[in-house]
Specification:
The complex is a heterodimer of chains A (300) and B (267). Chain A is an alpha/beta fold and 300 residues long. In chain A, 34% of the residues lie in helices and 31% in strands. In chain A, helix 4 packs across helix 5.
């Protein structure tokens, strides 16, 4: 599989501040690639560099395995940081400019306006739009001409819950249609919900990158409940693969080593020991705790 | 370039401020000249309905006169340039244009081209104004070619291009409209002040070669032309190539610096 984007030792200084330190990773074709990190971790700087609005202090990058140039940027739909449009022009006229720069057919404008539900307001000036509408116009602009690659920096910024759900649904749909999506976010569940791959940044340092299932899950979690929790906890300690048993409200959280988990055999084991489970649920380790764990380890 | 220019046109064609400033730029040239003409016409003694000194708005004097009067309006096209340039920074569309697929070179070159176009436009308006004042409001004297002194039109073009380019340079570096206009205006006034002080009080000649003054020198004011001795006039004419050369050098410096910065910097 070819790489859509490859970063090779990208370092960026703002004066004395090191915003990115030797960051390298590859975005494979067809992936939904999350760049995850807290605010100020360098996500936007990274995307700014690969879209040529910022210059790396050192290091190189390539799009589609080629030397970067404006021709490749026209193959991307990019939303970086904030929606940038001419305030005095209508949404539609702004999209006409974007389509002309990208070299896309202006007839596609109606379709993308419809997709983000801005058709009714297409003739209103951009400065009369709400924050959510501005964001949706920016997403419409990204979708112009149906580009093979989309780059979204905090795409759900400023959207209401329904808008957030819509955008996530759209990202999944785009991914299903074979698009490659690069998605920067500080929202853990956003990445967890839509991404196939992830790179985690902290203070400009790449902590880890790879398949979401490999990076974010190296242990598995099951929630168990029974009338006698103490006895249940006692017998679970002897079950093979169990790493840790924790009391959590009125259930038990049981951590298993990766690959050792089998819900059926847990149930059978408990039953054979004379305990009837009234709750048995598989949970991955929450991304949030994983994320905090990863970033903490790196700072220690 | 044509495609890029078409996109620039899409940015401004529905922008009211652009049209207002453009119309003011165009209309102010004949209007301001007419008010000076009218003032002169009604303020000096006349003999049998004819001005005692001959009208400075008749051929061939109309060329240095109208170009000088029009050059006083340099601030108006400068405001237009500053507005259009700093808008891109205010709306952060300079980034978006690059993200969407322009090269940085494309962005900066088309802006420079616009400065050039605007200077050509004002020069054209000045040309038509000269023709109007020379032929319609005044009778052309017999035996004098109406194109005598037309070189002033070229000097005017160089002046406008230089002043507008300074305005452009400041907008590209300062990025904010109000501040750019303020600094542009203060610079243009300050340079005049320094030139007057150094030349008249300390007899320093180098001030003639400052960025604004070297352009000012191309078109002497109507007062200067009245009092200049033939020797001084000859001396001034000999210096014209130096002034033009230096004006060109300054232009090259502005554009090399602005382009270099825009291509290398974080946007």
């Amino acid at each position: 599989m070819k790489n859509i984007l490859a970063l090779n030792s990208i370092t960026k200084f703002y004066g004395k501040i090191k915003a990115l330190n030797n960051v390298s990773f590859e975005v494979p074709e067809g992936s939904v690639f999350g760049i995850l990190g807290p605010n100020g971790s360098g996500k936007t700087t990274l995307l700014g560099i690969v879209t040529d609005v910022l210059k790396a202090t050192s290091g190189t990058y390539s799009w589609f395995d080629e030397q970067p140039s404006e021709k490749q940027r026209r193959q991307l739909g990019t939303l970086l940081e904030t929606p940038n449009f001419y305030h005095y022009l209508s949404g539609e006229r702004n999209l006409k400019i974007a389509a002309a720069i990208k070299g896309k057919d202006p007839n596609d404008i109606q379709r993308v306006l419809e997709l983000v539900r801005l058709t009714e307001r297409k003739n209103s000036k951009f400065n009369t739009y709400s924050l959510g509408m501005k964001q949706r116009l920016a997403i419409a602009s990204c979708l112009l001409g149906d580009p093979p690659v989309l780059v979204f920096d905090e795409p759900t910024n400023g959207l209401d819950p329904a808008g957030i759900a819509e955008i996530r649904q759209m990202i999944r749909q785009l991914s299903k249609n074979g698009k490659t999506i690069v998605l920067a976010s500080h929202l853990l569940d956003e990445v967890e919900k839509v991404c196939t791959h992830v790179a985690i940044l902290q203070k400009g340092q790449l902590i880890t990158a790879g398949n979401v299932n490999e990076v974010l899950v190296n242990e598995e979690l099951v929630e168990l409940g029974a009338s006698d929790l103490e006895r249940l906890a006692g017998i679970l300690k002897d079950l093979s693969g169990v790493k840790q048993v924790k009391h959590y409200e009125n259930i038990l959280q049981v951590f298993f080593n990766n690959g050792t988990l089998d819900l059926g055999s847990i149930n059978q084991y408990c039953f054979e020991k004379g305990i009837v489970l009234n709750h048995l649920q598989l949970k991955k380790k929450s991304l949030e705790s994983k994320f905090i764990e990863l970033t903490n380890n790196a700072s220690n | 370039m044509w495609q890029t220019l078409k996109i620039e046109w899409m940015k401004v064609k529905n922008y009211r401020t652009f049209w207002i400033l453009l119309i003011i730029t165009i209309v102010s040239i004949p209007a301001f000249n007419y008010s000076i003409y009218d003032f002169g016409n009604n303020s000096f003694p006349k003999v049998r309905g004819q001005s005692l000194f001959g009208s400075p708005f008749a051929f061939p004097d109309v060329w240095p006169m109208v170009t000088w009067v029009s050059s006083l309006l340099f601030i108006i096209p400068a405001i237009l340039i500053i507005t259009l340039t700093t808008n891109e920074f205010t709306y952060r569309t300079h980034r978006q244009n690059i993200i969407d697929g322009w090269s940085r070179k494309q962005f900066i070159y088309v802006k420079i081209f616009e400065v050039l176009l605007l200077s050509i436009l004002t020069t054209l308006v000045v040309f038509l104004t000269c023709l109007f004042f020379g032929s319609v409001l005044n009778k052309a004297p017999d035996g004098v070619s109406i194109f005598k002194n037309i070189q002033y039109l070229f000097y005017y073009f160089v002046q406008m291009l230089s002043y507008s380019s300074i305005a452009f340079l400041l907008s590209m570096f300062i990025r904010r409209a109000g501040l750019s206009m303020g600094i542009f205006f203060i610079y243009m006034v300050m340079e005049q002040f320094i030139v007057a002080l150094m030349r008249n009080k300390y007899h320093q000649d180098w001030v003639n070669y400052l960025p604004e003054e070297v352009n000012d020198k191309l078109i002497p004011s109507v007062f200067e032309r009245l009092v200049t001795s033939p020797d001084a006039k000859k001396n001034w004419e000999n210096h014209i190539p130096i002034f033009l050369g230096l004006a060109a050098l300054y232009l090259i410096i502005y554009y090399v610096v602005t382009t270099w910065r825009f291509r290398k910097a974080d946007l």
